[in-house]
Amino acid sequence: MRRQGVRRASGEVEPGPALLARGRVLAVAAVLTAMLLAFHRAVPNSVGRMGSLLEAFLPWLGLVVVLLLVLALLRRSVVALVAVLLPVAVWTYLFGGLFLPAGQEGADDLTVVQHNVSDENADPARTARALADGGPDLIALEELVPPALGVYEENLADGYPYHAVRGTVGLWSKYPLTEARLLDIKPDGIEGPWSRGLRAVVDTPQGEVAAYVAHLPSIRVGAGGLASARRDESAELLGRALAGERIETVVLLGDLNGTVDDRGLAPLTSRMNVAERGFAFSFPAALPLARIDQVMARSATVAEVRTLSATGSDHLPIAARITRR
Questions:
Q1: Which is it for the CA torsion 8, 10, 12, 15, positive or negative?
Q2: Residue 161 CB contacts under 8 Å (≥ 6 apart), including other chains
Q3: Tens digits of per-residue pLDDT, 184-220?
Q4: Angstrom distance (rounded) from CA 130 to CA 224
Q5: CB neighbour class for 325 (10 Å; exposed up to 12, middle 13-18, buried from 19)
Q6: Do the strands 225-227 and 207-215 form a parallel or antiparallel pair, or are they unpaired?
Q7: Could you give the CA distance from residue 297 to residue 122 in angstroms, rounded to a whole number?
Q8: Side-chain half-sphere CA neighbours of 186 within 13 A
């Protein structure tokens, strides 16, 4: 029989090589998971945009951490348990703050709703009423198509007397809108009409706010990895527009087809503040795995973000509270 340790004179068993080796595979897996979390930007995008693919689902590595913890406990390995503490600490540092309660709502806060309503939405009237139910100050919509546009305009008219639509994106507001214009974020290679960007100035009681509504190109996951080149190019164009914005306070709302951890949205996240509280996974509506619908702000804080009840869209609506500094 193999010896598991050396018995000391006191009667205790001194750990031998076999006991020390127990859990080494789990320990290595834990360290690798921690490295992926901490250094996800180091994963190259040159092949299949694997870095962006990892970052799209980065919070879900927490499930891997939980699995490793359970296996370490079942294995009764001190080495593995100590190693698992590393990815636990990194995940908590990256995402733990999203679970904390948001601060008290202020009188000057701006409430907004962002929703890709889907061009196949069978009941736009119900969707419009659901979005307006909480009385947000701004409602941003994407995938507005001509047959449904009039329905949204009719059902939002009472609470939102001001609105602007450019192409397939629109903004409804309780406050006056001025300087509404099309925002050119069309990447190369797309032929035909493609208008998915809007910029307008909202005249709020606390001052002017530049509101941007955008719908970036879709991404696809296939055998070759993540196809996001057009999304990334459109994000770069949008980032340049934001950089040149003359109004200090800016709010960006849209279906950006990417998470805030995805490096493809770096032209935006490097310039804008993202949500401080809440995960608000918005897509797909039937089983939300990621928040690709975003609310960002400049010279303001996105204090919290949350999902609303499902509508006739394949996205969930998200609501956010913006606190101005």
A1: negative
A2: 174
A3: 999 998 988 899 999 999 999 999 999 999 999 999 8
A4: 39
A5: exposed
A6: unpaired
A7: 32
A8: 14
